Each structure stands twice: as C-alpha cells, then as structure tokens.
C-alpha cells in the first residue's frame, strides 16, 4: 500500500510541476529512495530518505529503515540522485539598473538561473540599493530567484574613470557611494567599511589600482567588522602573492595569476587583459604562489570559461587553465564562478565553467560538485547553512535523473529544483 501512495504522490507532484506556476510547497515531505551526493565525504550514499520541514532538512535516513509518518508527504524518487543546490560565485546583476539590468529583465534572468539549478549567487559589484531589494525578495521567495549575496566595490581613485562605476552609482558620485568607494592612503577605512556593511553587502570586492599596503589595511579593517574580502588575483600594482599575503578570503580570475611571473605589474588595471611576452607555467613563482594560497586557505574563483567564450585568442585561457590546474594539484580550494552575461536562450553558464574544469583542468566530477556547492558557500560565509546535504541546513537541493559524479554534465539532467524547501519544475 505504501508504495502505491508513494507512486501517486510523485505523479501528482510531477503533473503539478509541469504547469505554468512551476512551484509547489509541502509543509513536511521526504525525498524517498534517493542516492545522496555527500560533498563532505566525497561519496554517493545510496538509498536515502531526506526529510524536509518548511525550508530545512530535518533528517536523513536509510530508506529501508524509514517508517514514515502521517504528517510527512512521501515523494518517491527511486534511483534519482540528490545534490546540494548549485551556487554561482561570480555574477553581475546590478551594474546598470536603469539600463540593461532593468527589473523585469533581471527577474527573468534570476528565474532562468533557479530553473537551471542555481539556488544561490554571489554578485561581484553593482548598485547595492537594487541588489538589496532583489535579495530581500529572493530570501522571502517573493520572486523565483536564487538567494543573492553581494559586495561593495573598493578600488584606487584612478579606477573610477571606468564608466561602469558611474552606472552603478547613479544618483551619487562614483567613488563616494558606500558601495562604490575610492580608496587612498588617508581613507577612514573603519567608517567606510561600516557604511558598506550597512548597504547589506556580505563582502568587499577589491578591484584594482591599489598597492599591497592598502590591500592589507582593507582586509584587516573588514575582517574586524565581520566582512568577507574578495579580491581580483592581481589588484594592480599589487601582485597575486601580495594579495594573498594580505589575507583576502577569495582571489578571482586564474588568468590574472599570470602576473605573478611578470617582472613588473602595471600600476592600474587597464592592462589586465594584456598577453605576456613569456609565460611558463613551470615558473617556480607560480608554485610558490599556490602553496601560499593553500597555506592561507585562500579560495580561487577561477572563472576560466569566461576567457574561453569571450577571447578568441586562446593565450589568456591557457594561462587560466594552467594555473587552475596547478592550484588544484596543490590542494587549493577552487570555487565555481562564471562572470558571464546570463543568456536566457541556453543553459546556465555555470555548466560551461564546470565543463571547463573537468575537460581542461582535469578536476574530478565530485570535486567540481563540491566546488560549486560547499566551497562556494564558504566564500560567502554560509557553509553552516547551505552547500551540503545535512540535517539543520537549508533545503536547497537538486533531484537529478542520472549520476553527476560519473559525468558532470548530468547536473543538467534535472528532475526537480528545491530552494528553501519549495519545489520547482526545472527548465
């Protein structure tokens, strides 16, 4: 009798989920007879029942021993695989909310990400007035969207010639807005970091045009106020080893790490895409750098697929691939971020990044899944609430038709997306 009930409930859910609303909520329910992807232990745990109440995982049981309850709706997904929801650790939603990032288009993009299995994102610099508004709606499930964590941008004075900073600070002066701040040797860091935190930002993004001394002072002041610090791998003129030594939590763009091997680093970021006259991945300076990153537990936000997609010349991409591979071999924690425009006509860009990490860098699928879930959760300081399948964590989960630990592309083979306990029909 119980198997018949399970079957009928699963049919009812799947029928409902194919309707336009694409959203369904049970108060308490269980995903029954699934194979759980345990990113903590790096293994697949077979035939499990995951019990969810409201937005939280409240128990994980062997399905053979699970007795069930009249208060728990059982959804039988026999032989499906369940992973934590994916996290894209590098997107841009609010560079120009009055233009290309207008509200309706942004909501479409967020819905697209969620239906592709992305349940959390980290926005890497935009108008925090706008991002805070979206973040609140996403957190309360008032819109179909991943949860949104975002940053305030700090950079040297010369950087604010960049037109994007003016777009993101409309109504205020770029460099003076609390989320788009110019830094010099006389800046009152404690005050402006408090103001940045007051915008709702989780972390500071150190972009460019700052020397090692200023990077170090920003990190110390930010950490004293409980804020994460996310920096470009080269901050110009601060080279990667100096950025890492300053104590940042995350370094973005593996391609920029190539500047560690340069005799001189440009004083500003305008030359950041310049090819190097000589690049040798076996340069001892790079091994020393990744060992320092491993020692300091600095996470690498590699974003390599960005260069494969947008730069026809493969040189920059090869820098990123070579240095990400070296970091992986040296046990540096690697996350998964895209830094790409969100294209509604194709699958989410996070799948391109994961494919590049498998095919070109040589990362194992289980390590890539962990990178896109638990490591990315650590980036934003939310590893105790999301990023793995454990009792007490949020019910941000993907139900998959096939095993992603044998082929990472199986993450696209979605049956159900679950965010904050709510079930959604995938794209």
Count of alpha/pi helices: 12
User: CATH architecture of the largest domain, please?
Assistant: Alpha-Beta Barrel
**Uncertain ranges:** 1-9, 14-21
* Assigned CATH superfamily of the largest domain: Metal-dependent hydrolases
Structure commentary:
With 427 residues, the chain is of the alpha/beta class. It folds into two domains: 2-84 and 388-424, Urease, subunit C, domain 1, CATH 2.30.40.10; 86-379, Metal-dependent hydrolases (TIM Barrel, Alpha-Beta Barrel). Helices cover 32% and strands 23% of the residues. The chain contains twelve helices and 19 strands. Strands 7, 8, 9, 10, 11, 12, 13, 14, 15 and 16 form a ten-stranded mixed sheet that branches. The longest helix is centred in the first third of the chain and has 16 residues, at 2-17. The two termini are 33 Å apart. 52% of the residues are buried. The model is unreliable at 1-9 and 14-21 (pLDDT under 50).
Key words describing this protein structure:
Urease, subunit C, domain 1, globular, 2 domains, single chain, disordered N terminus, 19 strands, 427 residues, ten-stranded mixed sheet, TIM Barrel, 12 helices, alpha/beta
SSE blueprint:
Blueprint: H1 2-17, E1 23-24, E2 28-38, E3 43-53, E4 56-62, E5 73-76, E6 81-84, E7 86-91, H2 103-115, E8 118-123, H3 128-139, E9 147-156, H4 163-168, E10 176-177, E11 180-183, H5 189-198, E12 203-206, H6 212-224, E13 228-232, H7 240-245, E14 250-252, H8 284-296, E15 299-301, H9 304-310, H10 315-329, E16 334-335, H11 350-361, H12 365-379, E17 397-400, E18 414-419, E19 422-424
Parallel strand pairs: 2-5, 2-6, 7-8, 8-9, 9-11, 9-12, 12-13, 13-14, 14-15, 15-16
Antiparallel strand pairs: 1-19, 2-3, 3-4, 6-17, 10-11, 17-18, 18-19
């Amino acid at each position: 009798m119980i198997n018949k009930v399970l079957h009928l409930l699963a049919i009812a859910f799947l029928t409902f989920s194919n309707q336009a609303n694409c959203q369904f909520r049970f108060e308490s329910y269980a995903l029954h007879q699934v194979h759980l992807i345990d990113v903590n232990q790096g293994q697949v745990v077979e035939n499990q029942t995951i019990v969810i109440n409201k937005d939280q995982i409240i128990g994980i049981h062997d399905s053979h021993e699970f007795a069930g309850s009249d208060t728990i709706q059982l959804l039988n997904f026999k032989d499906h695989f369940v992973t934590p929801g994916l996290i894209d650790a590098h997107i841009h939603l609010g560079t120009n909310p009055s233009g290309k990032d207008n509200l309706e288009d942004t909501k479409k993009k967020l819905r697209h990400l969620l239906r592709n299995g992305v349940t959390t994102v980290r926005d890497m610099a935009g108008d925090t007035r706008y991002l805070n508004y979206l973040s609140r709606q996403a957190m309360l499930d008032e819109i179909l969207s991943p949860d949104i964590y975002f940053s305030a941008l700090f950079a040297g004075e010369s950087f604010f010639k960049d037109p994007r900073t003016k777009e993101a600070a409309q109504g205020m002066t770029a460099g003076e807005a609390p989320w788009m701040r110019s830094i010099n040797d006389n800046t009152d860091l404690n005050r402006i970091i408090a103001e940045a935190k007051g915008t709702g930002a989780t972390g500071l993004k150190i972009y460019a045009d700052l020397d090692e001394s200023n990077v170090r002072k920003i990190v110390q002041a930010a950490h004293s106020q409980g804020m994460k610090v996310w920096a470009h791998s080269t901050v110009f003129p601060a080279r990667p080893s100096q950025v890492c030594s300053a104590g940042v939590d995350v370094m973005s763009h593996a391609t920029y790490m190539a500047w560690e091997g340069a005799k001189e680093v440009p004083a500003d970021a305008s030359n950041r895409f310049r090819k190097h006259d000589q690049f040798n991945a076996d340069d001892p300076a790079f091994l020393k750098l990744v060992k320092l990153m491993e020692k300091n537990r600095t996470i690498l936000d590699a974003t390599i697929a960005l260069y494969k997609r947008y730069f026809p010349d493969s040189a920059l991409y090869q820098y990123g691939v070579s240095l990400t591979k070296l970091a992986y071999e040296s046990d540096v924690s690697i996350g998964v971020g895209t830094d790409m425009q969100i294209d509604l006509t194709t699958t989410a860009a996070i799948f391109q990044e994961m494919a590049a990490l498998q095919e070109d860098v040589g990362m194992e699928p289980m390590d890539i899944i962990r990178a896109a879930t638990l490591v990315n959760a650590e980036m934003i300081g939310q590893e105790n609430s999301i990023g793995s399948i454990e009792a007490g964590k949020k019910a941000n989960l993907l139900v998959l038709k096939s095993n992603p630990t044998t082929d990472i592309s199986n993450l696209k083979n979605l049956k159900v997306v679950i965010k904050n306990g709510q079930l959604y029909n995938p794209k």
